[in-house]
Amino acid sequence: MAAKRLLSDPEEPKEKRMRPRPSFASVIGEAVMVNCLCTALEPVIRRVVNEEVERSLRHRLRSFTRSPSLRIQAPEPSTLHLIFPKDLSIPIFTGSKIMDRESNQLQVLLVDKRGDQMVPLLHHNPIKADIVVLDGDFPSGDGDNWSSEEFDRNIVRERTGKRPLLAGELAVTVRDGVASIGDIEFTDNSSWIRSRKFRIGAKVAQGNFQGLRIREAMTQAFVVKDHRGELYKKHHPPMLGDEVWRLEKIGKDGAFHKKLTAEGVNTVQDFLKMSVVDPPKLRRILGPGMSEKMWDVTIKHAKTCVMGNKHYIFRNSNYTIFLNPICQLMKAEINGSIYPIHNLNNINRAYLENLVRLAYVNWSSLEEIEVISNEIGLLTQGDDMVDQYPNHQQIMLRTFQPNAYLEGYMPSEIQTDGSNWHISQTYLNTPIGNDNRLNILESNSDDDLTSPKSFITGG
What we know:
This protein is an alpha+beta fold and about 450 residues long. It contains nine helices and 21 strands.
């Protein structure tokens, strides 16, 4: 009985003895409540943690930057550069070989550039470089302060459906600090990009050079024209046989070109000959549409023409005159004597000018000879002395026999100065005044062909 009492203590509360087990529904409810509480608290906890982490990092960074020994030093920019030493020859046309301004192959040099000083580097290990096309607007105002990534982003590729924009030798090897670029040419014009200009660039091939960065090279910006435009290109300098529209301010098939060809002025040589023999007529042919400024530009361009080494002889039984390719007098022989073209009076000048006019009219029948440059002997006879000047071989003859007769002149009274002659009308069919003299003496290259400085002086 005592044992039974011990097991069932009447003093123990009944609720404690009778603990009910939780139901399934109550367990599920409690779990849902806990999950909702975590979901609600999670953003708050995350925000607090992030703020604490950021605060700690800022504190650490401030203490880190205060210590000079722990600061990271930015690397100095490299002084090694690839460069194109010479500008390109322009204009540039599609399908035409790209050359430098001296008509040589393009070159790429490796230099050490510090400020305004550049020192060529003889790097013994070969460095491979790629030749690329760049947008003409690159770089935008920062000089040569660009990154390799910026350089690559401005490389211009061909248009869709077109051939590679640049054709030819696009991979070169820099040996001993220099590389020559072979034949390269554009296959497309530059009109389709916003800047309407290209540059040619050179960059070290990827993975080819380990070490300091070698800054890329680039040329000046330029326009690439379609090769059809080359058919209308002006020649600098023009050649004697070039069509006359190759001169500045005279457009192909334009009004000036048509007026000139209608008068038989088809070539640059024809233009220059008429500018010597009859400049007023040439101006009348061109008409008022060609202003003085345009005329000066055209004449200046024509003056740069390469004269060559041909001379032309107009002869008769009593005289022989030597002319250059544009009908300027080089030498005159009258009755076997040298005529002093550097010291003429008005009468002598008139006679020679009419001989030159006659030679001009009969140009196709003149005798043509070749003159070796700087050889005076071909322009002299016997002991006659000639001064030859460097600008277009200007010639002045010194010897003169005052008693020599001129065909078309009858000596009424021979005097020692040989100037008292009256004129036969045989050779003076064209009136010549002081304002319409021929430019029959070869002019200096610095003088306008139609200026009085290039007339025969004296008289």
